[in-house]
Design a protein that fits this description.
Elements (H helix, E strand, L loop, with lengths): L12 E5 L6 H9 L9 E3 L4 E5 H13 L12 H8 L8 H11 L5 E3 L3 H8 L8 E7 L2 H10 L6 H21 L4 E5 H6 L1 H12 L5 H7 L12 H13 L26
Parallel strand pairs: 1-4, 1-5, 5-6
Antiparallel strand pairs: 2-3
Length: 269
């Protein structure tokens, strides 16, 4: 429920672009506290609500299938996949996408967040009034990203984690540049350590009045501390990585970025 009351139709919509495992669910839940619509139903993991519109997820999955994408977007970055999805505009039946955008606009302001959006946003832009949207880029400390990936049994080197995260970030920034779009770059670590400063930035950008109380409603760990994994979790991640070292994802030397990924099945350990 919107704890701040109804909003004007002039309230800007929000689109969050990120790689995933960056704390973006906390940001989206926070923004929803300002009355931003997240969908009829949202995707819930066993531990938390992602605040991802399930209809948006289904349409993004449909786009990836139509583009012939068979990779793992949570582990691999691909310029070719981005181009393949973008090229679908004018070729695929657009009715479902137009209907979805119209549905969202009828409930504005809305907020979109789905990690697949870094692959599909160049298709979606054709159905959006970009001037009515505010774009937010979410990133996280790279070492914390590596730990989170490893604890999920996604075995990869820190070097590969950096390549993947920076590839997505640079692609998103290029999208902003190509379309002359303003954006707000936020870091999960800073939201937790300096919530007042981050909230001020969000409020100024989205014309909202979010407070630390709103943040505490969606983030249930201590604030004003570095959002870092515990030493025990770091040790566990290192042990998992060492045990499954032969299954790691890495960048092969002396090969181009797109060709140097040798994907292996995630370990079952």
């Amino acid at each position: 429920m919107d704890k701040q009351g109804p909003h004007s139709v002039t309230q800007p919509n929000a689109i969050i672009l990120t790689s995933g495992i960056t704390g973006s669910s906390v940001f989206t839940g926070l923004i929803s506290r300002a009355g931003y619509w997240t969908g009829d139903t949202t995707f819930r993991k066993s531990e938390y609500d992602t605040y991802e519109n399930e209809e948006l997820i289904q349409l993004n999955e449909k786009l990836l299938k139509e583009a012939g994408y068979t990779g793992d977007y949570t582990r691999e970055f691909s310029h070719d996949a981005i181009s393949a999805v973008a090229s679908l505009f004018g070729k695929t039946d657009a009715r479902a996408y137009r209907i979805f955008v119209d549905k969202c606009n009828a409930r504005r302001p809305w907020v979109w967040k789905d990690p697949r959006l870094w692959l599909t946003i160049r298709f979606w832009k054709n159905f959006l009034k970009l001037d009515d949207c505010r774009f937010i880029l979410i990133t996280r400390d790279l070492m914390q990203s590596w730990v989170s990936q490893t604890l999920r049994r996604r075995i990869q080197t820190y070097r590969y984690t950096r390549y993947y995260e920076e590839g997505i970030k640079n692609s998103i920034i290029s999208f902003f540049t190509e379309n002359n779009l303003r954006h707000l770059h936020l870091q999960y670590d800073e939201l937790v350590f300096h919530p007042d400063k981050t909230l001020q930035a969000i409020n100024g950008y989205l014309q909202t009045n979010l407070t630390v109380s709103d943040l505490s409603n969606v983030y249930h760990k201590p604030l004003y501390r570095r959002a870092r994994r515990s030493m025990l979790e770091h040790v566990k991640a290192v042990l998992i990585y060492m045990k499954n070292y032969s299954e790691r994802l890495d960048l092969a030397p002396n090969r181009t970025a797109e060709d140097q990924i040798a994907l292996k099945k995630p370990s079952s350990d």
